[in-house]
Design brief:
two-stranded antiparallel sheet, mainly alpha, 71 helices, single chain
């Protein structure tokens, strides 16, 4: 048996050596691996064969020799300890000869030989040096790769080489003067660099070195002699590559030079190195060399270095200011080396360096400032002790960059602040400014925006991407402060609370709340006394009051605003509840959810600020501290934006509510405010200049009059009568003039409308008619009395139009006509506010009169057409800032009791979205949320369809935002969320884009995470990640829409591939814990993927493929599907064409695209995905369609790659697939005979195969190949015989092994019948338990297209039956 094995190794190795000349690098790599496998078993034998092959074929092409030499290197590296010494000697001789055979430099060939010597040198350094030094003789220039090999040896075996280096450099030094060619200069310079680094490593680890007496001065003389030639001669070369290598060598050599010599050379050396920056585009090597020289100079205490410091700092600063390209690693390395230079200089010249950096920080040039900030950050982190005394100076100097307009500079500033936080800077005076800077940029808006509020720092113009990047960076930094910088806890608590109330920080609410929650929980858990805030201080009391008001405000708005601030705000309120009141926590748990619902209802009609001031009024109404009430009223009146009509109204309502409990104090404060300096209009020079703008003062008077009006409305009746004349009417008359009349007029009309509004949607026709006609008269009165002298905004236009427009299709014709009259008058009121004259007529508005006449026709089609015309007019005249209010009012109209009006609301809504929706990106999440809520209460089917159209329109304009919002909805999707996804499938083009987007994300997202289920149970559990699960559900819902069929058909290969891989990733995966208890529709992760795949196949009309998906049992279902899917599409392909042309159209021609889409998943890190795709490909190979579609080569190559996969199941499936070629494409077996036999042989020799599944599959595949032995193809016959002889020893039957070795000889014939007879007999005797397996395998060949194959299969089965009876 041993002789046979040795012969086999020789034959296989020889065949592989022949194959090493293949042009395909993949084949070459496989050859190397295969020979290495053999070499690991018999290293001496394989090395001998490689050597003999090279010696017998001296004229091999270079590429062929290289592959063989590389293989020798692999074997040596792998089994160096098992190779005999004589063989080592012969390998050394071979590699040396191969390396120097050609005097010309042939890099690929000679490098391969050199690598062998380096590999051997790791253990046999003396033998290597004996051989190398024979070719490294004094007075004769050596071969290029002799020097290169010495350099590489010094790297790989430091302790072995350093003892030789003194002698080597002694021989080398005279050679340097003889060298004329640049390539030799380069290799000598490189070698000196490697030698120096090896010596330094040796000296740094003397405790491990074989000779601890070695000292630096042992090499100083030779190093300096080499330095002299390199610096004074070779550094002047015109070849940039040589200059850089010389510079690199000088850097390493500087550590070994005598101190006096280095000191003497520094005035020339440093300027020369710095000068290289201008001569070379590649700077990393220069900076690395400079860093080493500086380090050597500082270590020896150089005095000369101080004279060079100015030039060094300027040059280094220029380098640190160079842009760093992360896609170009050398630029990143150069940046890091320059920072190391600054660190070295900081240790010796801290004051000069700090003055230099801080001066450069004052330079407004963006690049200079960014470089200086990078240095400052590095010094703070790396030179803590040195920077300790300069912390206050740095804090003062950092203020100037805080105001820089550049986004890139701001990012660097954030990095510096983060470093300062870890080293105690923020705890010093002025540190709060840096915290404020971070919070200010956490509050950056979501779109293009200019900060108009007067703040300490300027917010520059930024694109949305820049906003996201900088804001995200600041969010993370703030989170870092609260989680990892423990010393900041007392700095940030409770300071961060103060940033929650100012409006300019509104967009930072979410990160602020999260940080405060962490701080509060940390302090409460640690029972720190300062968790309970001392509110005795007056300022903190007011801050707390603002905070209490702020949180209802942010939760009253839609929770998706300000980056989803709703939930974090409420969580913070809960976290700090002990600071508010002992009973606050149960209040939060029981009452706040009800308040949130109430707030949302209120905010349908107004703005956040309007609502906030009403909240203030309610709270002050309940407050007993009169002094606090007075101060709060003062702050409200001074802080109001009087130019904003809605805010003025909100302030007046709040003060009116306060007056219901504090009438005297409120009237007193209003009178005081009316007499304040804010109302005085002092004249300037000659009365031509005014300190106050007339318009501002008049609007303040409007606010004051409004306040008196609401005080009169809410004041207690028993007190009001005594104060109405003396305090209220008297003060109104003092401030009343023509400009203020307009405000009073508006208030009167608006209040009247509020009383009428509820009747507009009454169920009684006469009530709606009276309400709309009254509104029309009210608006006519307002229009007739309106006098506008300054351009202002009609803030209520959107709300009024949104409330009245749906009535234009009311069942009552009188209501319809009156509603049009209202719209007509509202449009002209808007025109008056825009500055048009009283007699101006607008053509588009006049068109409403034509629309009015058409509304007399009760026909539904006429009404809706007229409604569209009305909407076009509204869209043309409505200001952009009014659009959002109008839309949200129309959302209310969708649930109008009159179906005509609800339909009209949907028509107007969708027309407006089509014409004006492109500018509403910020509102998309909120609009989708409202539509989701409306779907739950709408019963009118036509309106539901219209809502689907609304979602489609929004998606057309804001696709990414719509998809991201809907994907983020909680799982499992409720029926209304599903309807929204189904609606997106109605437009084939849009559905195509969304599906492509989802497919792309599914292909790169993590399908699950491994989590420890319990501390008591060992092992990890696979838990599905939410986003891919949600996207699979989304695909499922979209494909349910029949109108998505075109998109599904176009994307079928990609969809099928993505869902097939998703299915494989879902087996054995659990739902996230937050879904386990609530999930009804998602019974398991796998079922979601199966259902989506079932719907896809249904859309593709592949009903036969769907059958396994309709069966029960999800786990068995997936396995059944993987197998059955291939059979339906492949095995019965001809029959499918005859019986179902649609299936053939979808399944057949698209298989190549499906295979191409699945191929990338074969290299995925997730075994489940590789298993799924390999199983699918394996089954495809079982059918002839892969040959007809010309994808056999692709599948074959993929299976060959998978037989080396790290996963045993993948390898088993790959072997199965290769064996299936004999069934699916028997005519191709001859073409792939060599590869197939090698794969089967490899499979039967598999070591990592606990259940012998791979071995069994390989034997099964080999059994299929056996049936080809009686074919007339000589090459196939020879290959089969050879394969069977090779595999015989591993079958486990001495009888079969002997029979194969004796009868399956290449030069001898074979009596096929007798052979099958004997083989069957031995199989039954030796493997009785495998008979069913053989039977099932061979029966498959009854379907073969070749008569000979079917005959052989029948013969085998017949013989088996006969012998089964005998035995």
């Amino acid at each position: 048996m041993g002789v046979i094995e040795e012969t086999d190794v020789e034959q296989v190795t020889l065949a592989l050596l022949d194959a090493a000349n293949d042009r395909d690098p993949v084949v070459q790599e496989q050859v190397r691996k295969s020979i290495l496998t053999l070499g690991n078993q018999q290293p001496d034998k394989v090395l001998s064969m490689c050597q003999d092959y090279l010696l017998k074929h001296p004229k091999l092409v270079v590429g062929h020799r290289v592959v063989i030499l590389q293989t020798i290197e692999l074997v040596v590296k792998s089994r160096i300890d098992d190779i005999s010494y004589p063989k080592i000697k012969s390998v050394i001789q071979l590699a040396s000869d191969e390396m120097t055979k050609s005097k010309e430099v042939v890099p690929e060939w000679q490098q391969a030989a050199s690598n062998i010597l380096v590999a051997v040198g790791n253990k046999y350094i003396n033998d290597i040096m004996e051989e190398i030094l024979r070719k490294f003789q004094p007075g004769v220039l050596p071969h290029f790769f002799v020097v290169q090999t010495l350099a590489n040896l010094s790297d790989s075996n430091v302790y072995g080489m350093v003892p030789f280096l003194n002698a080597i450099m002694g021989t080398m030094l005279p050679m340097l003067g003889m060298t004329k060619q640049d390539n030799m200069k380069w290799v000598f310079s490189s070698a000196l660099c490697h030698f120096s680094e090896s010596i330094l490593e040796y000296l740094a680890n003397l405790d491990k070195a074989p000779d601890p007496t070695v000292r630096k001065d042992t090499f100083s003389s030779e190093i300096y002699s080499a330095y002299d030639i390199l610096f004074n001669s070779w550094m002047q070369s015109r070849e940039s590559k040589l200059r850089l290598t010389v510079a690199e060598a000088l850097g390493s050599m500087s550590h070994l030079m005598a101190h006096d010599k280095l000191e003497e050379q520094l005035p020339k050396l440093l300027p020369t190195i710095l000068g290289l920056y201008k001569k070379n585009s590649e700077h990393y090597i220069i900076s690395k060399s400079l860093c080493q020289i500086l380090e050597a100079s500082v270590n020896m205490g150089s005095r000369v270095l101080e004279t060079q410091i100015d030039g060094l700092l300027v040059a280094l600063h220029q380098q640190i200011c160079s842009p760093m390209d992360f896609s170009n690693p050398p630029t990143v390395k150069n940046h890091n080396e320059v920072l190391r230079c600054f660190t070295i200089l900081a240790n010796t010249f801290p004051d000069r360096l700090m003055v230099f950096v801080l001066q450069r920080l004052e330079n407004s040039n963006k690049r200079n400032r960014m470089g200086s900030l990078a240095v400052l950050r590095h010094l703070i982190n790396s030179s803590t002790s040195i920077m300790e005394t300069k912390r206050l100076l740095i804090l003062a100097s950092i203020r100037q960059p805080l105001a820089d307009h550049s986004n890139k500079v701001k990012k660097r500033v954030v990095q510096v602040i983060s470093a300062m936080a870890h080293h105690g800077y923020l705890e010093l005076e002025g540190g709060d400014l840096l915290v404020r800077f971070i919070i200010q940029h956490c509050a950056l808006p979501d779109t293009y925006h200019v900060q108009t509020t007067v703040t300490h720092y300027h917010i520059s113009y930024l694109t949305p991407d820049q906003h996201d990047s900088l804001r995200s960076m600041c969010d993370n930094t703030l989170h870092l402060f609260t989680t990892t910088v423990g010393r900041l806890t007392d700095v940030l608590w409770p300071m961060l609370l103060c940033y929650l109330t100012p409006n300019q920080y509104a967009n930072a609410t979410t990160p602020l709340c999260k940080s405060l929650i962490l701080l509060a929980n940390k302090k409460q858990t640690a029972q720190e006394p300062n968790f309970i805030i001392d509110f005795n201080a007056q300022v903190l009391t007011l801050k707390l009051l603002k905070l209490m008001l702020h949180f209802p405000q942010v939760n009253a708005a839609f929770p998706f605003r300000c980056r989803g601030h709703g939930a974090p705000s409420l969580s913070l309120l809960h976290a700090i509840s002990p600071n508010i009141h002992p009973k606050a926590e149960p209040l939060w748990e029981n009452e706040i959810p009800k308040l949130v619902n109430y707030f949302e209802g209120l905010l349908k009609y107004t703005t956040v600020m309007y609502f906030l001031y009403r909240c203030i009024g309610v709270i002050l109404q309940q407050c007993y501290n009169k002094e606090l009430v007075r101060k709060q009223l003062q702050e409200i009146l001074i802080g109001t934006r009087h130019n904003d009509a809605i805010e003025r109204t909100g302030v007046a309502m709040g003060i009116g509510l306060c007056a219901s409990s504090h009438l005297d104090g409120t009237l007193e404060k209003l009178e005081e405010f009316g007499k304040s300096d804010a109302f005085r209009k002092a004249s300037g020079i000659f009365g031509l200049l005014k300190d106050k703008n007339d318009v501002d003062v008049e609007k303040m008077k409007s606010t004051l009059i409004l306040c008196y009006g609401y005080v009169a409305l809410h004041a207690p009746e028993d007190k009001l009568l005594t104060r109405i004349d003396s305090d209220i009417l008297h003060n109104i008359s003092k401030n009343f003039n023509t400009k203020v009349k307009q405000s009073a007029l508006f208030i009167e009309c608006f209040c009247t409308f509020q009383h009428i509004e509820s009747w507009l949607s009454s169920g009684q026709d006469h009530e709606r008619e009276r309400a709309v006609k009254t509104t029309a008269e009210l608006l006519q009165f307002y229009l007739d009395n309106l006098r506008v002298k300054n351009l202002v905004t009609f803030h209520n236009l959107g709300a009024l139009v949104g409330r009245l427009a749906p009535r234009c299709t009311d069942p009552n014709p009188e209501v319809r006509r009156a509603a049009i009259d209202c719209i007509y008058r509202l449009m002209y009121i808007q025109l008056r506010y825009e500055g048009f004259s009283l007699d101006y007529k607008d053509d588009s508005v006049e068109g409403l009169l034509v629309v009015r006449e058409k509304l007399s026709n009760p026909d539904h089609s006429v009404l809706y057409k007229t409604c569209s015309e009305l909407t076009k007019i509204i869209s043309k005249r409505l200001p952009q800032q009014q659009l959002s209010t109008l839309l949200f009012m129309l959302y209310d109209g969708l649930v109008d009791a009159q179906s005509n009006c609800s339909r009209a609301s949907s028509v107007i809504l969708n027309t407006l979205l089509k014409n004006r929706g492109a500018g509403l990106q910020d509102l998309v999440p909120e609009m989708l949320e409202v539509l989701h809520n409306r779907l739950q209460v709408i019963g009118e089917e036509q309106v539901k369809v219209a809502i689907g159209q609304s979602i489609l329109i929004l998606a057309t304009q804001h696709l990414q935002t719509v998809v991201n919002t809907l994907v983020a909805y909680p799982l499992p999707y409720d029926s209304w969320s599903c309807e929204m996804w189904i609606a997106l499938g109605a437009d084939s083009t849009l559905a195509l884009q969304i599906m492509e987007m989802i497919i792309e994300k599914l292909n790169v997202m993590v399908p699950y995470v491994d989590k420890k289920e319990s501390m008591l149970r060992p092992g990890l559990t696979k838990v599905a990640t939410s986003q891919p699960l949600a996207m699979t559900c989304a695909l499922r819902e979209m494909m349910l829409n029949g109108q998505s069929a075109d998109a599904v058909a176009y994307l079928f290969p990609k969809l099928f591939s993505a869902l097939l891989v998703r299915l494989g990733s879902s087996v054995g995966v659990q739902l996230p814990k937050d879904l386990n208890n609530i999930c009804v529709s998602l019974c398991c992760v796998l079922s979601v993927a199966v259902e989506a795949l079932r719907i896809l196949l249904g859309r593709a009309q592949l009903d036969a493929v769907m059958k396994p998906l309709d069966q029960e049992g999800s786990l068995e279902l997936s396995c059944c599907f993987l197998s059955h899917c291939g059979k339906i599409k492949c095995d019965h392909f001809e029959e499918a064409i005859l019986s179902n042309r649609a299936m053939a159209k979808h399944a057949g021609p698209r298989l190549p695209s499906i295979v191409e889409s699945l191929c990338p998943s074969l290299c995925n890190i997730y075994e489940c995905q590789r298993i799924t795709v390999t199983a699918f490909f394996s089954e495809l190979l079982n059918h002839h369609v892969v040959t007809e579609l010309m994808i056999l080569d692709m599948l074959m190559n993929n299976m060959m790659e998978r037989i080396t996969d790290t996963c045993g199941t993948v390898r088993m499936l790959a072997v199965r697939g290769l064996g299936n070629i004999a069934v699916g494409s028997p005519e191709k077996v001859n073409k792939y005979a060599k590869e197939l036999l090698a794969a089967m042989s490899s499979g039967m020799e598999e070591n990592d195969d606990p259940g012998k599944l791979i071995t069994l599959e390989a034997m099964s595949g080999m059994s299929k190949i056996l049936l080809y032995l009686d074919q007339k193809n000589v090459h196939l016959l020879v290959a089969c015989k050879y394969a069977m002889r090779i595999c015989a020893p591993v079958i486990g039957s001495e009888q079969i092994s002997a029979m194969f070795q004796n009868h399956l000889l290449e030069e001898k014939g074979l009596h096929h019948g007798e052979f099958i007879n004997d083989l069957t007999k031995y199989l039954i005797q030796d493997f009785p338990g495998m008979l069913n397996f053989y039977h099932i395998t061979v029966i498959q060949f009854f379907k073969s297209n070749w008569a000979e194959i079917r005959a052989s299969a029948a013969m085998f089965i017949g013989k088996k039956k006969n012998y089964s009876i005998v035995f």
